[in-house]
Structure prediction request, 147 residues.
Amino acid sequence: MASLLTLTYSSPTLDVAKGEELVTQGTPGRDLYVLESGKFVVERNGVAIATIEHSDAMIGEMSVLLGRPHSATVRAERDSKVRVVRDAMRILEKHPELALRIAQLQSQRLDATSALLVELNHEHVDKPAERNLIGRIFSTLMTPGQH
Prediction:
């Protein structure tokens, strides 16, 4: 399947300066971003939870797909460039190959998260509190809308 960069070749690009916010937690999100180059940090409630630095990574898809405000702030750690898919939901409805690619990437993330949780569960076999937390995370991942 084609990369997101290939699928969004005609989308405009946006230069994001180091320190600039691409998306802000709590604000509405209608656009999807695809990383061309650079590095971003993802912060939720002021806590850094991830970095994004691989070309072809998507940003903002949760807000677009769920119709909710952004769940995190995404800030450039260095000068970066992204492709901007404006009014992304409308574009996804018209271009199923792009929607399918995003679904595949989300499935890969869920698979990787599940594998990590299984590994953590094995490491904490003698720690009931940790195993309970891991079980709650698994349940949340596998039961949409129940968190």
